Input
Amino acid sequence: MKRKKTLVIPLICALTLQCLAGVGSPKRAQAADPLTYNGWKYNTGGEILGYTGSETDITLPASLPKAEGSSVMIPMYTVGQNAIKNNTSITSVVIPEGYTRIEASSFENCTSLESVKFPSTICDMAVLDDSSQMQDNQNNCAFKGCTALREVTLPEGITCLGPQAFSGCNALEEIELPSTVTDWDYGLYGAAGLKRVTLPDNLTEIPRSAFDGCSSLEHLDIPDTVTKIDWYAFRGSGLTSLALPKAIQEINGRLLSQNGDGTYKDKLSVLEIHSLTYNSMFIEAKELGLYEKIKIPHYSLSEKYFTSAGYTNLEYLPEPEDEDLKAVPYEGEYDAQEHEAVRVEGLQEGDVVTYSSEKYGTFTEEIPVIRDAGSQSIWVRVERSPYYSPWQVNVTATVTDSRADLRKELEKELSKAERLAADKGLY
Output
């Protein structure tokens, strides 16, 4: 029993460390000659190098002999670069548990391949040993040109989806990205058949060229957790409408790609911006005509920008409809006391109330106060889920001074009290 534990624990630790380090399998063994067994070509480093068998529905071996004729088995970890490339006979592939890495071009141009089943242990897909990430590198694509591939389920645990992993897989119409994927620049580049892509709820970034060339993709739900969209994310996609999430903070480059002569390749019928604060300067004035309609929240920096740019075909996102919502400003006589300048009635659980001194200013949850005689203009905003446009109103708080003499006496007494309080240690 002790001997068994000694063997299993190092194997589990090795797999865990490989995933955490971003290395799916051990370095290639420096063997002079590869080994062969039952149609499989491999090395003692646990890497599948090729397949010469006649099976069309294949399951990769979990382990293979350490040497020709040996009864000692070594586990397989990696599908090596170009290992099954150009095999036009196989129709399905099962990669068993224990495999952690699929190297570049492993299954490229397997034109009869219809389905792939991945193990939960897989970490990396289509990543070159030199970590090349260039979009035009033809050796980056694990399943490039698998024109019959229809079914792919990426498991939770995979962290890296290499460039152009499914480029040219025109029969692949749907894919779901697991929550563990953190590195997928160019990951779906050229996947022209994709119609539906499900993104994880915890996603924070749409990386460079994420959907570049996904010409069949007409709709995409971007999670509200996304704060950044990188270069060329939607270039050449089939998107006809795009809704930017509320949390967006950074967009690198234009949403639409340009030709060399300055004209645009793409056109969106509807652009929907949910952020209340994001400044839409990434859209140049000459680009505005490419959007048939732009939907934005009321009282946002986006509204201010588009209005000042002269764009007239704006549509406002709906704001909370609640007849009970009411902002009541303070109105009273001077009494030398501090008063909340406004109170809001008709609130629901979860409402966020903020205040500002100007319409497009900086809003804060700190309630403004008023004491001295005079008036104070206040903008009140109520944000309520699931609305992206806030309820907003301008009110004026006032303090009147109908008894000037009394005010002077009160100020005198207040000053006296403050002075006595400061000097109390002398008495």
User: Anything to note?
Assistant: The radius of gyration is 32 Å. Residues 1-32, 128-139 have pLDDT under 50 and may be disordered.
